[in-house]
Amino acid sequence: MHVGRKAQKREKKAMSVSLYGNLFFVIVEIVMAIYTSSQAVLLDAIYDGVEFCMLLPSLFLIPLLYKPSNEKHPFGYMQIESMFVVVKGITMTGVTVGLILNNIEIMIHGGRKVAFDTIAWFELFAFFLGITVSIYLKYKNRLMDSPLITMEMEGWEIDSIASFGMAIAFFLPVLLPFPWFRPITPYLDQIITVTLSIFMLPTPIKTVITGLRDLFLIPPEEETVDEIKETIEPVLNAYGYKKLYYDILRTGRKLWISVYITFDKDLVSITRFKIVQNFCIQALAKKYTDFYFELLPDIVFTTDDEALTNHIVNQSEEVDQNAKFAD
């Protein structure tokens, strides 16, 4: 499926908004982390800093992702996106694990008190700003279905949920000014950071796994394969095609779907094939924005076929010999 220049510009514009939003957050969070000495705010600052560093080169990747496939690049440049997603996921996983270990070490050494009310109001502001950006990205991505924008949108959503949880947690010393709660306050910042890190960790790990599947041309997750089959099979069954074999791959945002049909008779109608293929493409286009689909006859090589092939080869050799004698 061809995606025009307008989609490319829309995607680049949406990614630019996410880029500038990340840059703003990084600057403000670094200042706030220094001012309050909070590990939780530092977690946000490092996370958003890594996001910004990884997001910057992705803007230059977008034009490559829209280039068509050719003989040198049969899958186009889509695997560059998969590689980028893997690198980003590994980086985020490493940063998150490092912060967990660092905060456990701080807790072992007696914890650290911070300006809870200042951090709470800051995180509340971050929550509303994050929600605004994620809604904007979701609106822009509704027609493009871009993995890069989806990944950014998920990042902003996680940040928003985390900021809201942090705001509530940091308001606790103000809301619970009781003697029994005071011994916990030096560890509150670290407890929040470790909890948030554990909450965030599955997302980059899942990103790495998905990206590696795409890089090594392993079929997508079972849910995606089943959805494709459920979309195509009603069309093929309506035309009496029952013996089907699927070859499904994903590179970045693009799905490559090949369906092989085994015939009972030695007869294939090209016109009928084209009609059925177009119906399948129309059905898939309702669910996927960027895919390649082909419908092919599956050639099963039997003993009779082998005998027929040998007969044809022998005839060809006889023709060649007769042509030489004629010369």
Automatic annotation (TrEMBL):
Annotated membrane topology: Multi-pass membrane protein
Domain of life: Bacteria
Keywords: Membrane, Transmembrane, Transmembrane helix, Transport
Parts of the chain that traverse the membrane: 20-37, 49-66, 78-101, 121-139, 160-181
Residue ranges annotated for the Cation efflux protein transmembrane domain, each copy included: 17-215
Record localization: Membrane
Any one cellular-component term (Gene Ontology): plasma membrane
Pfam hit, one: Cation_efflux
Signal peptide boundaries: none
Gene3D superfamilies (alphabetical): Cation efflux protein transmembrane domain
UniProt-recorded name of the protein: Ferrous iron efflux protein F
